[in-house]
Design a protein that fits this description.
CATH topology of the largest domain: DNA polymerase, domain 1
Radius of gyration: 23 Å
CATH superfamily of the largest domain: Tyrosine recombinase, N-terminal domain
Structural class: mainly alpha
Order of helices and strands: EEEHHHHHH
Strand content: 5-15%
Largest sheet: 3 strands, antiparallel
Number of strands: 3
Strand order of the largest sheet: 1-2-3
Protein backbone atom coordinates (compact mmCIF):
# COMPACT_ATOMS: atom_id res chain seq x y z
CA UNK A 1 0.00 0.00 0.00
CA UNK A 2 1.39 3.39 -1.01
CA UNK A 3 1.96 5.96 1.70
CA UNK A 4 -0.40 8.93 1.45
CA UNK A 5 1.35 12.24 0.88
CA UNK A 6 0.24 15.36 2.68
CA UNK A 7 -1.62 17.89 0.63
CA UNK A 8 -0.55 21.49 0.32
CA UNK A 9 -1.34 23.45 3.48
CA UNK A 10 -2.12 20.39 5.63
CA UNK A 11 0.81 20.98 7.96
CA UNK A 12 2.57 18.28 9.95
CA UNK A 13 2.78 16.83 13.44
CA UNK A 14 5.83 17.22 15.65
CA UNK A 15 6.86 15.02 18.53
CA UNK A 16 8.31 17.51 21.03
CA UNK A 17 11.27 16.77 23.34
CA UNK A 18 8.79 16.63 26.23
CA UNK A 19 7.09 13.67 24.54
CA UNK A 20 4.01 15.72 23.68
CA UNK A 21 2.65 16.32 20.18
CA UNK A 22 1.62 19.45 18.30
CA UNK A 23 0.45 20.35 14.83
CA UNK A 24 2.43 22.87 12.77
CA UNK A 25 1.05 24.53 9.69
CA UNK A 26 1.39 27.82 7.87
CA UNK A 27 -0.82 30.61 6.65
CA UNK A 28 -0.30 33.72 4.56
CA UNK A 29 -1.00 36.96 6.41
CA UNK A 30 -0.38 40.32 4.78
CA UNK A 31 1.58 38.69 1.97
CA UNK A 32 3.95 36.96 4.41
CA UNK A 33 3.96 33.27 5.24
CA UNK A 34 3.61 32.71 9.02
CA UNK A 35 3.82 29.45 10.98
CA UNK A 36 0.82 28.28 12.99
CA UNK A 37 1.29 26.12 16.10
CA UNK A 38 -1.33 24.16 17.98
CA UNK A 39 -1.13 23.77 21.75
CA UNK A 40 0.83 20.68 22.79
CA UNK A 41 -1.04 17.43 23.52
CA UNK A 42 -0.24 14.14 25.22
CA UNK A 43 -0.96 12.10 22.08
CA UNK A 44 -0.71 12.60 18.33
CA UNK A 45 -4.41 11.67 18.06
CA UNK A 46 -5.35 14.63 20.31
CA UNK A 47 -3.25 16.95 18.12
CA UNK A 48 -5.02 15.57 15.03
CA UNK A 49 -8.41 16.12 16.66
CA UNK A 50 -7.43 19.72 17.49
CA UNK A 51 -6.32 20.32 13.89
CA UNK A 52 -9.57 18.88 12.53
CA UNK A 53 -11.69 20.96 14.93
CA UNK A 54 -9.78 24.17 14.20
CA UNK A 55 -9.30 23.84 10.45
CA UNK A 56 -9.86 27.21 8.84
CA UNK A 57 -10.00 28.96 12.22
CA UNK A 58 -6.30 29.11 12.90
CA UNK A 59 -4.41 32.37 12.64
CA UNK A 60 -0.66 32.63 12.77
CA UNK A 61 0.52 34.13 16.00
CA UNK A 62 2.73 37.09 15.30
CA UNK A 63 1.57 39.76 17.71
CA UNK A 64 0.92 39.60 21.41
CA UNK A 65 -2.72 40.52 20.72
CA UNK A 66 -3.15 37.41 18.56
CA UNK A 67 -1.53 35.27 21.26
CA UNK A 68 -3.75 36.83 23.96
CA UNK A 69 -6.84 35.70 22.04
CA UNK A 70 -5.55 32.12 21.83
CA UNK A 71 -4.28 32.12 25.42
CA UNK A 72 -7.62 33.27 26.84
CA UNK A 73 -9.41 30.45 25.01
CA UNK A 74 -6.92 27.92 26.42
CA UNK A 75 -7.13 29.41 29.94
CA UNK A 76 -10.92 29.31 30.10
CA UNK A 77 -10.99 25.52 30.30
CA UNK A 78 -7.70 25.11 32.18
CA UNK A 79 -8.29 27.18 35.33
CA UNK A 80 -11.07 28.00 37.78
CA UNK A 81 -13.66 30.51 36.57
CA UNK A 82 -12.60 33.14 39.10
CA UNK A 83 -8.94 32.85 38.04
CA UNK A 84 -9.91 33.08 34.38
CA UNK A 85 -12.02 36.20 35.01
CA UNK A 86 -9.22 37.89 36.97
CA UNK A 87 -6.70 37.10 34.21
CA UNK A 88 -9.10 38.27 31.50
CA UNK A 89 -9.71 41.53 33.36
CA UNK A 90 -5.96 42.21 33.64
CA UNK A 91 -5.47 41.38 29.95
CA UNK A 92 -8.30 43.64 28.76
CA UNK A 93 -7.64 46.51 31.18
CA UNK A 94 -3.87 46.75 30.94
CA UNK A 95 -1.96 44.32 28.74
CA UNK A 96 -3.96 44.44 25.51
CA UNK A 97 -4.07 48.25 25.55
CA UNK A 98 -0.30 48.53 25.57
CA UNK A 99 1.01 45.41 23.83
CA UNK A 100 -1.64 44.11 21.39
CA UNK A 101 0.16 45.27 18.24
CA UNK A 102 3.66 44.35 19.43
CA UNK A 103 5.18 41.36 17.65
CA UNK A 104 6.03 38.61 20.14
CA UNK A 105 9.60 38.40 18.91
CA UNK A 106 10.06 42.17 19.49
CA UNK A 107 8.89 42.17 23.11
CA UNK A 108 11.80 42.78 25.50
CA UNK A 109 12.49 43.08 29.20
CA UNK A 110 13.48 46.76 29.13
CA UNK A 111 10.23 47.79 27.42
CA UNK A 112 8.14 45.91 29.99
CA UNK A 113 10.13 47.38 32.90
CA UNK A 114 9.64 50.87 31.48
CA UNK A 115 5.91 50.24 31.12
CA UNK A 116 5.61 49.09 34.75
CA UNK A 117 7.40 52.28 35.87
CA UNK A 118 4.92 54.31 33.78
CA UNK A 119 2.07 52.49 35.51
CA UNK A 120 3.58 53.45 38.85
CA UNK A 121 3.69 57.10 37.73
CA UNK A 122 0.02 56.75 36.76
CA UNK A 123 -0.70 55.81 40.41
CA UNK A 124 -1.37 52.11 39.76
CA UNK A 125 -0.83 50.32 43.08
CA UNK A 126 2.11 47.99 43.67
CA UNK A 127 -0.20 45.02 44.14
CA UNK A 128 -1.94 45.73 40.82
CA UNK A 129 1.40 46.18 39.01
CA UNK A 130 2.55 42.89 40.54
CA UNK A 131 -0.63 41.18 39.26
CA UNK A 132 -0.15 42.71 35.79
CA UNK A 133 3.50 41.63 35.60
CA UNK A 134 2.83 38.11 36.83
CA UNK A 135 -0.08 37.70 34.39
CA UNK A 136 2.07 38.87 31.47
CA UNK A 137 4.82 36.49 32.57
CA UNK A 138 2.27 33.63 32.74
CA UNK A 139 1.02 34.50 29.23
CA UNK A 140 4.54 34.44 27.80
CA UNK A 141 5.41 31.21 29.66
CA UNK A 142 2.41 29.63 27.93
CA UNK A 143 3.71 30.92 24.59
CA UNK A 144 7.04 29.20 25.31
CA UNK A 145 5.25 25.99 26.37
CA UNK A 146 3.26 26.05 23.11
CA UNK A 147 6.51 26.80 21.27
CA UNK A 148 5.16 30.00 19.78
CA UNK A 149 8.33 31.73 21.02
CA UNK A 150 11.65 30.19 22.04
CA UNK A 151 12.15 31.98 25.36
CA UNK A 152 10.21 34.22 27.70
CA UNK A 153 11.77 37.70 27.39
CA UNK A 154 10.48 38.70 30.84
CA UNK A 155 11.29 35.50 32.71
CA UNK A 156 13.71 37.45 34.93
CA UNK A 157 11.43 40.45 35.43
CA UNK A 158 11.55 41.64 39.02
CA UNK A 159 7.98 42.41 40.06
CA UNK A 160 7.09 45.26 42.42
CA UNK A 161 7.21 44.41 46.09
CA UNK A 162 3.96 44.82 47.96
CA UNK A 163 4.47 46.22 51.46
CA UNK A 164 1.84 45.11 53.90
CA UNK A 165 1.25 46.86 57.21
CA UNK A 166 2.34 44.86 60.21
CA UNK A 167 -0.59 43.31 62.05
CA UNK A 168 -1.23 44.91 65.41
CA UNK A 169 -2.13 42.71 68.37
CA UNK A 170 -3.41 43.86 71.74
CA UNK A 171 -1.17 43.27 74.72
CA UNK A 172 -2.53 41.41 77.76
CA UNK A 173 -2.97 44.71 79.66
CA UNK A 174 -4.83 46.31 76.72
CA UNK A 175 -7.08 43.28 76.39
CA UNK A 176 -7.88 43.34 80.14
CA UNK A 177 -8.70 47.05 79.91
CA UNK A 178 -10.97 46.42 76.88
CA UNK A 179 -12.83 43.66 78.72
CA UNK A 180 -13.23 45.89 81.81
CA UNK A 181 -14.59 48.78 79.70
CA UNK A 182 -16.96 46.58 77.75
Amino acid sequence: MAKRRRGRGEGSFENLPSGKWRWVGSQTLGGKREKIFSPSFETKREAQDWRDANRGKTVAVGTLGEWLDKWLVLQESAVAHQTYERDRQVVETHIRKRWASTRLRNLDLLAVRTWLVQLESAKVSASERQRIGSTLRKILNAAVDSQVIATNPIARLKLPTVHRDEKRVLTAAQLAHLVAVA
